[in-house]
């Protein structure tokens, strides 16, 4: 079974602040303009919804209002996907063809490539974690990780230091491509003050 990444360029602090913001205008815009998307998601998870999981809009409402959340762990995935929807609406989707689809431990393989270049400030495997803003409940799927502007600045400094030292470890071509794509994401973020990267693995 393969996995995919959804990676967004956005103002990290502003996006995370949407959680619990109680922004009714935002909810109304989503409900009005993205009804078909919400319905499509509900169709995808109809089995779970029939068994008590919140609908896509119900989950989104809970995320924006800061709760209440279902106390059932197997319903938490809906809140993770609702947060991804907020990132999709407020951020820019970044090209990720080196990661979608991918299988097995590919993210850790790319991390090893980053580390070989002495880039340790960021990790693509972090996108498999459950780094959601509080009070969102923990969920295994989707995974979520964040590269803050500070982490990105440090990672780019590390890469420049590696180049200046003439350090060029042998890497497989597909790993090189993936590392270069990560660097592209970071450069896009660096060009916009306060911007970082939020990624989801599903």
TrEMBL record:
It comes from the Bacteria. It holds the Pfam family DUF7691. Residues 1-201 form the DUF7691 domain. This is DUF7691 domain-containing protein. The lineage of its organism: Bacteria, Bacillati, Actinomycetota, Actinomycetes, Kitasatosporales.
